[in-house]
Design a protein that fits this description.
Helix content: 25-40%
Order of helices and strands: EEEHEEEHEEEHHEHEHEHEHEHEHEHEH
Bound molecules: NADP nicotinamide-adenine-dinucleotide phosphate, zinc ion
Pfam family, one: ADH_zinc_N
Cofactor: Zn(2+)
Number of strands: 17
Organism: Nakamurella antarctica
Number of domains: 2
CATH superfamily of the largest domain: Medium-chain alcohol dehydrogenases, catalytic domain
GO molecular function: alcohol dehydrogenase (NADP+) activity; zinc ion binding
CATH class of the largest domain: Alpha Beta
Distance between the termini: 29 Å
Shape: globular
Keywords: Metal-binding, Oxidoreductase, Zinc
Radius of gyration: 20 Å
Structural class: alpha/beta
């Protein structure tokens, strides 16, 4: 089995350190991907710190993977050596349950196999994109269109699809008022995609410090949630609110911003349970919902949509030795808008 360089953490209270992992020999339906870029998702931090339950250590995070095919198994038909490809949050699913058959593999009834911190159906722990190479069944590999650079494409594989899927499901489009809570990695993709879909987009951020960026990304309106007046001005305004925040919010305050029949969709995944008053829902026949990434077919559709509209993510490219610092900056909401690791720096000697 090939041994490849990786950035791994040994435990929930440890920093990430350079290490090595073993990748499997490619099977008949496997694609070997030389990773060029790997996005840093807030979920990487939650999992590396065991905030969602005990993680599998050593852990190599990374589920926003972009690179090129370097080898294929004998039966692979969808990809060729040299193709620009991506891998998102899962690398396998049962392929038989009703959700898999419907192309909603992320909701596989037997549990999808996470790209990292998961266990394959063979029992092996999975390792993610903070490494130089990954081996994935061709059915779980996405094609990255030429129009999107690989570094800006990487975050689409999680942040992009996590916003595209609910925006499409709840029919964001012309005549719809959509609000995005939190202008981080997920939120900024929500603004771009909802705007491209034709919706009227409002950002609800803690402060106005990123307002100019928000407008540039496509927001029509921008409000600070630290200002109480915001909740008075925006009462009963929105058809759809997508909450990307990684901490619990005052749900009742945000539900009051929905108009009749509006829906608030949670995609952010705080560690503590959330609460709300049932009155906040029944008063306007409102819905409180959740959504998780998207299926393979829909992820490809999202990549093609972004290419057609000429955008990827807004990124800050970092070296492999800067990832621990980047985690701290993500936690401080100090990122515009996604850190992406240049995996070439993992091949090069350490800088510190
Ligand atoms: P991120 O880049 O850190 O963005 C989160 C944003 O939320 C911040 O930029 C900040 O925006 C706002 N925020 C942070 N702390 C806050 C607080 N205490 N109160 C109010 N607002 C706060 O994170 P991300 O990568 O976008 O991920 C966001 C969440 O989604 C994480 O919990 C992650 O695990 C989850 N996630 C879910 C899925 C899914 O499939 N459902 C997929 C990927 C990630 P402002 O500065 O604009 O206020
Ligand atoms: Zn993610
Ligand atoms: Zn399934």
């Amino acid at each position: 089995m090939p041994t490849v360089p990786a950035l791994a953490t040994a435990g929930a209270d440890q920093d990430l350190k350079r290490s090595t992992i073993e990748r499997r020999e490619p099977g008949a339906h496997d694609v070997v991907i030389d990773i060029a870029f790997s996005g840093v998702c807030h979920s990487d931090i939650h999992q590396a710190r065991s905030e969602w339950g005990a993680g599998n250590f050593p852990m190599v995070p990374g589920h926003e993977i972009a690179g090129t095919v370097s080898a294929i198994g004998a039966e692979v038909s969808r990809y060729q050596v040299g193709d620009r490809v991506g891998v998102g949050c899962f690398v396998d699913s049962c392929r038989e349950c009703e959700n898999c058959v419907a192309g909603e593999e992320q909701y596989c009834l037997k549990g999808n196999v996470g790209t990292y911190n998961g266990r394959g159906y063979d029992g092996e722990i999975t390792y993610g994109g903070y490494s130089t190479q990954v081996v994935v069944n061709e059915n779980y590999v996405l094609g990255i269109p030429e129009a999107v650079a690989l570094d800006a494409a990487a975050p689409l594989l999680c942040a992009g699809i996590t916003l595209y899927s609910p925006l499409k499901h709840w029919q964001a489009g012309p005549g719809k008022r959509v609000a995005i809570i939190g202008l981080g990695g997920l939120g900024h993709m929500g603004v771009k995609i909802a705007h491209a879909m034709g919706a009227e987009v409002t950002v609800l951020s803690q402060t106005l410090s990123k307002a100019a960026d928000g407008k540039r990304l496509g927001a029509d309106h921008y409000y600070a949630t630290s200002d109480e007046q915001t909740f008075k001005d925006l009462r009963n305004q929105f058809d759809l609110i997508i909450n990307t925040v990684s901490a619990n919010l005052n749900m009742d305050a945000y539900l009051s911003l929905l108009r009749l029949n509006g829906t608030l969709v949670n995609v952010g995944l705080p560690t503590e349970p959330a609460s709300y008053q049932t009155f906040s829902l029944v008063g306007g026949r409102r819905s409180l919902a959740g959504s998780m990434i998207g299926g393979i077919r829909e992820t490809q559709e999202m990549l093609d949509f972004c290419a057609k509209h000429g955008f990827g993510a807004d990124i800050e490219v970092i070296g492999i030795d800067e990832v621990n610092e980047a985690y701290k900056r993500v936690l401080a909401s100090d990122v515009r808008f996604r850190f992406v690791i240049d995996i070439a720096t993992l091949h090069a000697p350490a800088t510190s």
